[in-house]
## 1
Amino acid sequence: MSVRTLTINNIPVAVEEGKTILEAAKEADIHIPTLCHLDGVSDVGACRLCLVEVENINKLLPACVTQVTEEMVVHTNTPKLQEYRRMAVELIFAEGNHVCAICVANGNCELQDAAIQVGMDHTRFPYRFPERGVDVSHPQFGIDHNRCILCTRCVRVCDEIEGAHVWDVAQRGENCYIASGLSQPWGEVDACTSCGKCVDACPTGAIFRQGTTSAEKERDRAKLEFVVNARSKQEWTR
Amino acid sequence: MNNQKLTMKKIKFATVWLAGCSGCHMSFLDMDEWLIELANYIDVVYSPVGCDLKEYPVGVDVCLVEGGVANQDNLELIREVRAKTKTLISFGDCAVTANVPGMRNMLGGAEPVLKRSYLELGDVTPQLPNEPGIVPELLDRVLPVHEVVSVDIFMPGCPPDAARIRATIEPLLKGEQPKMEGRAMIKFG
Ligand code: SF4
Ligand code: SF4
Ligand code: FES
């Protein structure tokens, strides 16, 4: 196994070749904000919250999908990054319809947490108020596209952990949405095993259990971690 | 100590209520006995819960604005408030994000909203409200306050709880700025 040495915020770090900057930072106890990253599934670089500066590279790089290289010099919390991160979170709020007061995830939402982390007390971008739908055709769950931030965590847990591949990303740009099956109502997708992994993975209130009302959503993230560890490390109890 | 307070120049303080449910004002009243302490420092010159004056005066030091900007009256008042106020605070989610009143924006414009509410859902004598000069016209979109006028301090929350309102106002009484940072001061919903 070959090792790569680099510095993150002037701290020397040595990690295995092939690791990402995010993983290297974690080993050095350096916190980088993330939103689309979810332990146990692949990374896609969708949210841009984990952007970092690397010396001698003149663009910002997403830490979750950038592999470390020898003698890389990484900065994770410069004023420029703080500004871009805040803008990324503001854009996410302005893009959808995030009415926190009446959301199942109010108080237990990773997007709200991100706002606090980046110091966002309002968004400087005009709200778009897009027209989006809600699908409650599934007997147990529902998806409210108004609150979806297109992180694709649901797509990845369903495909990579459950192996059902119910979800995909349809359309592009402002029309982008998370589609079930062949863009059918969720309740008509036979592939869905009703395992609930997407409910646990969703960082916002977009995917929820029916019957949950404001501020009632609970997610069992430990369940996802358990399933992943069970398979990869043969740990069968929790 | 009280004598000193009483001789101090009091801050001219106002609150206004635009398109919101008045919950933020109720939360303000939730500061309970601290309101009595607060009264030593402020002159309430305009407020639906603290003053009978009908005209927004000039030279206001601090104003809490509850609610989004939804109709012609809101628009005129917020412009007047901005022109006559030193520190304007967006007070609560409706002011900061348009929040629940803003959900009508997804229907696209004032007309479909009025038709839906007053014609399609009107059980008896369905008709559109029309009383020019008395019933203010709806704007096409409900806007957060800072999309209309500049805002100095943002206090999100639906409603912000009494502790956060106090933590925001208290520094201003001493001529200091509150730090709107961290979980204690930033809370949407
Ligand atoms: S309940 Fe399970 S199988 Fe169904 S969509 Fe969610 S993750 Fe996929
Ligand atoms: S539904 Fe939830 S998990 Fe899926 S993309 Fe949207 S926000 Fe992410
Ligand atoms: S966590 Fe890296 S882009 Fe979202």
Note: The two ends of chain B are 39 Å apart (CA to CA).
## 2
Amino acid sequence: MDTIAWTDDTDAAQPPPFGDHSTLTLHVNGSDRKLTLDHRTTLLDALREHLGLTGAKKGCDHGQCGACTVLVDGRRANSCLLLAVAQDGRRVTTIEGLADGDRPHPLQEAFLERDAFQCGYCTPGQICSALGMLGEAEDGFPSYVTAPDTAAADGPVPLDAEEIRERMSGNLCRCGAYPRIVEAIEDVTP
Amino acid sequence: MSHATQPLGAPVARREGREKVTGTARYAVEYHPAGRLHGRIVPATVARGRVTAVRTADALAVPGVHTVLTHENAPRLREPDDPVLAVLQNTRVPHRGWPVALVVADSLEAARAGAAAVRVEYESAGHDTVLTWDHPGMYTPEQANGGYPAVRERGDVEAALAAAPVTVDATYTLGGLHNHPMEPHASTARWADGHLTVHDSSQGSTTVRDSLAQAFGLGRDRVTVVSEHVGGGFGSKGTTRPQAVLAAMAARLTGRPVHIALPRRYMPALVGHRAPTIQRVRLGADRDGVLRAVSHEVATQTSRIKEFVEQAAVPARVMYASPHSRTTHRVVALDVPTPSWMRAPGEAPGMYALESAMDELACALGIDPVELRLRNEPAVEPDSGRPFSSRGLAGCLHEGARLFRWYDRDPQPAARQEGRWLLGTGTASATYPVLVSPSAASAHAAPDGSYTVRVNATDIGTGARTVIGQIAAAALGTPQENVRVEIGDSDLPPGSVAGGSSGTASWGSAVHHAATALARRLAEGGGVPPEGVTATADNEKEAAASPFARHAFGAHFAEVAVDTLTGEVRVRRMLGVFAAGRILNARTARSQFIGGMTMGLGMALTEGSTMDPLFGDYAEHDLASYHIPVCADVTDLQAHWIDEDDHHLNPMGSKGIGEIGIVGTAAALGNAVRHATGVRTRSLPITPDTLLPYL
Ligand code: FES
Ligand code: FES
């Protein structure tokens, strides 16, 4: 049964294409990555196991914790709930793709500055989620706590602490870094 | 070096912070050795019985599956140091969720499909999974967790209660609670030339190294366990967990590296949890609130394979003066998963009961709850008679009451309403013992003027790496940036587990002594030779028994709003003040206190685990059903502290801070709910359905 040549850690470990595999291209953090994947492979496992991008974390594998949050075509998503094969051609941004060269993204700086984490396991998901959330608010997406007249105005939704808390509630942090996470996001909120 | 030396206590940023925010910090299954395989556990589906057959043919036919380990073909282990590690050694099923097979495959997908294809047959016996106060199997153990005697008595409690003008007699019921660190338990194991190396998600890799060496019959020098970054633990990673043993077994059998990460929903059965407790507290007092008698009786459960007794009556031995006292623990072994440490075992559930009872007493007497606690401050530790090394409870109560504006409160319950919301405030005390465990460290000076300290500490998110650097730098009189810190590897000088709020005191003392010895050697002059200078030390002095009663204390204040239409409780603000010796890093300490308080909020309002008597299983076994607090639950949450100058602790003057934040929080919130509504619930969590019938 041991027919696959395991020469190194990630890309070479692709099984040959057959009935339940497909070849696809993901645009990950600005570069095209061609992969042949089992149809059952989630986007999260494609990133972690096949592309060596372990920044996205697996906290539950069931869409219940947000640790796996990445941006897909600019919108945040739980990558454990997406089948990779269905993402062919999409742009995926992970925590590893946020920095501008050596300069971390302002959200990454703010999380550092505010001590907005402890164990760090939820942190990549929190930061990607925050980035997605800023985009949603910019585009006028309302949340449960957005006053109806604000949403109707069709402009950006201003983000106060209550809005941030509500919109970040899909990202669990067992270390309880929430107050600092909200402060960090407020620091970069326009 | 352009950096200045910073005093201990400075808010130094985490050393590994950049790796964590950029996603480059690697956790246990994020090392990808060539040829790695993936293991997936097949959990037992009966709560008690015997495996009669494991049919693996279908699983082995799944493309990509390499092998299936069962009790028939798994490597034989020596008797492990913890019975929960004796996996795949025989046919016995001690509880639902116990591993009965392990599928090993090329990919995660194949491992999962393979595990689903394994057919297990059982001979099941009737199971018993329900804790009751008078369960016929109840017995009094020798000791409770932490080595505390199960029973302590002073004076004549029954007579004192009978004679007391005011009494409280209340029983509090808590279900199980789950640690659920965000990183599920995970291991990567590989063998090379007879040497076992495991990257493990653990709170102490020296401990895991020793367990694996014992189980596999190896010398400790033939096992290396690495825990560089760990995604939280809260006690559940403080002991070796089965996935480490299974990964090592599978790697031995296949000759390839093996990853195992536990699926989230397997965790409640396999990684320990806080045991359910039933606690009867009786207080007897004079009309002026001075306690005459304190009785705290605890009934709890353990599994059939290991005795673990949640020491919930122990804080009553520390908190309040009373001439008559009885604190007891009883336990029954059921067909349930083995309970273990969860953040502040003993103190967290015990102080929920005791501090709720104190609030009940304050209500019965018409005395302010802060004042009632102040009136019962003991001169010495009530149980032992030992003097306190320092006792900051009164200071915390005073400071907390001031910061919270506590005395603005009308003690009348259900008196404050804003629209459909009833508002109330509550308070509770906190305590946690000072613990120290044996550790060793080395400190090295290089010719270029830099230093390296080495100790097998584990940073589970506490900031251990950072504070160790600060302690070493302070002893060496150098900027902390000039000190390299090596932790998280069992090949380093042995360190104790990151648990019991003991890490900083334990590792830090050894580091302080090693660094101080090194500084002394360097001060003798002669310069640093090319190979450098190294000094080593341990913490034998600090780990020895103390003639003093040593505890951290704290006070919680909380304001809640209760929705009269739905019964929902929203926390408006929470404020904790802690007296925990000297705070060594203001930044990471604040995060720890707040993290503990947040977990206490969950214990009070959202986290509940129900034992399903039919299946013998915790029903809430994923994060969609077991509700840990989310961002929207945590609004105005503040942690403050009083600096203590206590010379009976360790060279840094620190007490532990990892656990005290959760202690008492649930009582403060429950007391606030009572003040808001007039309704006293004596069980947790206080979910809308528990309150609504009374509103
Ligand atoms: S791992 Fe995707 S939501 Fe938890
Ligand atoms: S930092 Fe540990 S879970 Fe969020």
Note: Chain A has two domains: 22-97, 106-188.
